[in-house]
Amino acid sequence: MNKANRMWRRIIVLAICSIILAVFGSNMVAAQDGPTLESLQASVDSMTISIDTSWVLITGFLVFFMQTGFALLETGLVRQKATVNALLENFIDAGLTAVVWWAVGFGIAFGASSGGLFGTSMFAPGIEMASTPFTYVFPDGGTFSLYVSTLTFFFFQFAFAATASTITTGAMAERTDFIGDLIYSALIAIFIYPVIVHWVWSGSGWLFQMGFHDFAGGTVVHTVGGVIALVGAIMLGPRPGRVFGKPPRPHNMALATLGTMILWFGWFGFNPGSTLGLGGGAPEGVGTFASWAGLITINTTLGGAAGGLLSMFFQFFRSGKWDLTYALNGTLAGLVAVTPACAYVSPLAALVIGSLGGILVILVADAIEAAKIDDAVGAFAVHGACGMLGTMAIGFWADPTLTFNTVMAGQGGLFTTGSTALLGVQVLGSLATVAYVAVTSVLMFGLLKVINRLRVSSKADVVGIDVYEHGASLWPDVLPHPDDVAEAGAPKRAPAVGD
Q1: How many helices (H) and strands (E) does the chain have?
Q2: What phi and psi, each to the nearest 5 degrees, are found at residue 474?
Q3: Which fold has domain 51-456?
Q4: What whole-number distance in Å separates Cα of residue 36 and Cα of residue 168?
Q5: Residue 125: which region, alpha, beta or left (left: phi > 0; alpha: psi -120 to 50)?
Q6: Which pTM does this prediction carry?
Q7: What are the phi and psi torsion angles at 83 (to 5°)?
């Protein structure tokens, strides 16, 4: 549908240009240095490239800035003696992912397809791709080219890849070996995340060809990150002294709140930016990419707002307290839930989806706690459970004028059209993703256990992971380094004669 809209848009532009030429007479056409239809079309294309490239880069910068939000949120929610570790893991994961995504991950995600399972080309993209439009190649031989270059598209997708591994660090906070963190972050960006990207977003992936819809990553990013986080937390074991039913209190809610607000801000790059441009034709329900981006933005806003409100009120009715932590995680849950559906549903449906996310995150967090799984920041409840909720929500509330993916183009949800076809594909895609990610995560973390690089040494349980792994404290005036304490408490040397 996008290809057809693009063709009709060009025809209209050319028709307008022809009228202008006719009005101003044949002399302008005949003039050697005057405009022609070809030059006018080139000007239109050049302007579209500029607009789309600016849009994708700016929204990509916002998605990358979400790394700051994750770092602050996690640092605020963990205990004081693990803050430096949380900051370094979030910071260095972005750099590590950039390198391995460039070398391997991007090619597996978007390269020439091998049976719809993984890509086999475009590894380590170079300057030859700086001006080459990124082109989707479909199994039937058809193609669709963006107005942005392959390198611009690479950067936008890198920002998403960095998010997937960062989700995992939160669940496994305070007790993961640092070398182990580096290893699993690299493996996620090489072997786990890009395979799901290929299935869903490459144009040749088997789920894409079945009509699976995930606009901005509810399955690809959040379900993947959430399932890895859950498997990692289970295989890692709980933090020392963990009392289930009474989670450790976050050490700094100001940092956690600032981190959440940055994440919400970054989500306006995450979701609207996934249009990958503003100059083309969108589904018939909205007409243009620009108006589609507007719909996506309001849906993102309503989903996050509803999630935070419902979570806060739900927890108040349970405890009688206005709980900031639940409001923060509820907002993130609403944002995650609306992410896959934000381009396919009405604002009212986005409000409902976000509300369901705000309640689901509390119920799932309770279930994880009851199962005695130590997920330090509620990563699975927020990202895994609500990512799956949002994926299924497309099958219930999708507007048939907004869906466009291959065989399911024009299909609506159960509550909008009465059809279960789209819902069935969404369930299948979500289950397939969970199965692949769970199996590969068990293998990955199992390998780290075998080489003794999953859990930090038991010595860290005594002195704290910040001191053991990094020799540092975020708050040295409040929580001094043991060496500083020893030096301060050491007996003073008696002065020598003559001193």
Answers
A1: 21, 4
A2: -70, -30
A3: Ammonium transporter fold (1.10.3430)
A4: 55
A5: beta
A6: 0.88
A7: -75, -40
Q: What is the distance between the alpha carbons of residues 287 and 130, in angstroms, rounded to a whole number?
A: 30
Which residue has tokens 């935070």?
308
**What distance in Å separates the CA atoms of residue 389 and residue 385, rounded to the nearest whole number?**
6
SS3 166: helix
Structure tokens at 333: 């849950």
Q: Where are the domains of the chain?
A: 1-35, 51-456
Nearest to 266 by CA among 430, 71, 54, 52: 71
Find the Cα–Cα–Cα–Cα dihedral 278, 280, 286, 291, rounded to 10°. Answer: 20
**Which distant-in-sequence residues (6+ apart) come within 8 Å of 31 by Cβ?**
none
**In contact, 234 and 371? CB cutoff 8 Å:** no
Block residue for tokens 């990512």: 387
CA 277 to chain centre: 18
Placement of tokens 């993703």 in the chain? 433
- Cα separation of 380 and 335, whole Å? 14
Helix (H) or strand (E) holding 113: strand 113-114
Distance between CA 56 and CA 147 in Å, rounded? 10
Task: Characterize 459-488 residue by residue with b for buried, 16 or more Cβ atoms within 10 angstroms of its Cβ, and e for exposed.
Answer: ebbeebbbbbbeeebbeeeebebeeeeeee
pLDDT, mean of each 10-residue run, the chain (499 residues) = 52 49 44 63 78 95 96 95 95 96 97 95 94 87 87 96 91 96 96 97 94 96 97 95 90 96 97 89 76 94 98 96 96 98 97 98 97 96 98 96 78 93 96 98 97 94 91 78 58 43
